[in-house]
């Protein structure tokens, strides 16, 4: 496993991180989830991503249980706040009240005294940005949070946050967590230029387009049993946007390119994301330990320029 700085910060993260959306506390049982976390640690993954809202807070509990007893300094723990975690009007968003309360609840569920990275899961249009940034800064000063990041904010929102932090002397955002994969390259237009200028690391999610880029979904064929596309607990809904014959056909056309490069499809897709030096880490999901062992092979793989150009031709970004 190779490691990169999270943006301009001193924090090192593993090129492949492991996230537990839709899996822990939902699609897979607790024993399999714990086996996945240990497979990740054995494979050199040190960065773990979760959120207060995943599986109605159960995902954090499972991850906390899985990491209990592992030397705290040997891994980086990232979680998030924003989406509703309860019925009340203050059980959501980025108010000072919800950020502080949600952080405390996450620390309890994750069985730790501090988070390495605390991320605003989305932008909150109803709360003044100064209030949000001051609440995060307080958590940093209290030692409960070491670094602050955001997820799926626009370039304008990130730029505003950086300006306010600089003016007010608050801790700066170090990372952004956007979706990025061969089929979804939205961040290349505005986010990446800003990230380069400001040193914001991209810790990207769904690098395999939820499994579609492994090539296991063939056009016109039923999805493989046990895959996310068959997961009635939520996964099937989220992946459905990708399960169109035109998309799946283009993905199949990548197969000979992967074979020529001596890679499997998942490795090609993950290595593609990591070719960009602004990407600090690719957060994979996994429903089985074997997927983790397969996917970590992408760390350190260099792709030839010619291969990247041929991928562009097929996918027509
Ligand atoms: P991926 O694109 O890596 O998809 C993961 C899924 O693909 C697995 O659960 C598995 O599903 C399948 N898969 C993985 N490896 C293989 C393989 N080698 N062969 C075959 N199938 C494979 O990422 P996710 O969409 O799961 O997202 C990863 C993480 O990103 C999340 O856990 C979360 O931490 C973060 N995230 C953040 C969001 C945000 O808003 N900030 C939003 C979404 C995710 P299966 O076996 O069931 O088919």
Give the topology, please:
Elements (H helix, E strand, L loop, with lengths): L2 E3 L6 E3 L1 E4 L10 H13 L4 E3 L8 H10 L8 E6 L14 H15 L4 E6 L8 H13 L3 E6 L4 H14 L4 E4 L14 H8 L2 E5 L29 H5 L5 H8 L2 H6 L4 H10 L4 E6 L4 H7 L9 H11 L2
Parallel strand pairs: 3-4, 3-10, 4-5, 5-6, 6-7, 7-8, 8-9, 9-10
Antiparallel strand pairs: 1-2
Helix pairs in contact: 1-2, 1-11, 3-4
The structure holds NADPH dihydro-nicotinamide-adenine-dinucleotide phosphate (NDP).
The site of NADPH dihydro-nicotinamide-adenine-dinucleotide phosphate has 29 residues, from strand 10 and helix 11.
Would you give an account of this structure?
With 317 residues, the protein is of the alpha/beta class. It has one domain (3-209, 275-300): TIM Barrel (Alpha-Beta Barrel). 38% of the residues lie in helices and 15% in strands. The chain is built from 12 helices and 10 strands. It has helices at residues 30-42, 58-67, 96-110, 129-141, 155-168, 191-198, 235-239, 245-252, 255-260, 265-274, 289-295, 305-315, and strands at residues 3-5, 12-14, 16-19, 47-49, 76-81, 115-120, 145-150, 173-176, 201-205, 279-284. The strands form 2 sheets. Strands 3-4-5-6-7-8-9-10 form an 8-stranded parallel β-barrel, surrounded by 5 helices. Strands 1-2 form a two-stranded antiparallel sheet. Strand 6, helix 4 (129-141) and strand 7 (145-150) form a beta-alpha-beta unit. Helix 1 packs across helix 2 (58-67) and helix 1 (30-42) runs parallel beside helix 11 (289-295). The protein is globular. The protein starts with a strand and ends with a helix. Bound molecules: NADPH dihydro-nicotinamide-adenine-dinucleotide phosphate. NADPH dihydro-nicotinamide-adenine-dinucleotide phosphate (NDP) is lined by residues 19-21, 23, 49, 121, 151-152, 177, 205-211, 214, 216, 227-228, 266, 283-287, 291, 294-295.
């Amino acid at each position: 496993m190779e490691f990169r700085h999270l943006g301009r910060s001193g924090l090192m993260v593993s090129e492949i991180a492991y996230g537990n959306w839709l899996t822990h506390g939902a699609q897979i049982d607790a024993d399999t989830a714990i086996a996945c976390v240990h497979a990740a640690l054995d494979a050199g993954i040190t960065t773990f991503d979760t959120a207060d809202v995943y599986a109605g807070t159960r995902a954090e509990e499972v991850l906390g249980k899985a990491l209990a007893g592992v030397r705290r300094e040997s891994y980086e723990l990232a979680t998030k706040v924003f989406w509703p975690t309860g019925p009340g009007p203050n059980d959501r968003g980025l108010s000072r009240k919800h950020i502080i309360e949600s952080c405390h609840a996450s620390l309890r569920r994750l069985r730790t005294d501090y988070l390495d990275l605390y991320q605003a899961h989305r932008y909150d249009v109803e709360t003044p940005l100064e209030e949000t940034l001051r609440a995060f800064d307080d958590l940093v000063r209290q030692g409960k949070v070491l670094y602050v990041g955001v997820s799926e904010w626009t370039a304008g929102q990130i730029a505003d946050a950086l300006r306010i932090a600089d003016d007010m002397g608050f801790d700066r955002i170090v990372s952004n967590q956007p979706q990025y994969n061969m089929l979804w390259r939205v961040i290349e237009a505005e986010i990446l230029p800003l990230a380069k200028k400001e040193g914001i690391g991209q810790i990207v999610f769904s690098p395999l387009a939820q499994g579609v880029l492994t090539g296991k979904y063939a056009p016109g064929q039923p999805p493989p049993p046990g895959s996310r596309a068959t997961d009635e607990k939520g996964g099937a809904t989220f992946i459905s946007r990708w399960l169109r014959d035109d998309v799946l056909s283009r993905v199949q056309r990548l197969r000979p390119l992967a074979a020529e490069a001596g890679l499997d499809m998942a490795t090609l897709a993950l290595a593609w994301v990591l070719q960009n030096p602004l990407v600090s880490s690719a957060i994979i999901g996994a429903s089985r330990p074997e997927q983790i062992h397969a996917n970590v092979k992408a760390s350190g793989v260099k792709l030839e320029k010619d291969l990247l150009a041929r991928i562009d031709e097929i996918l027509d970004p």
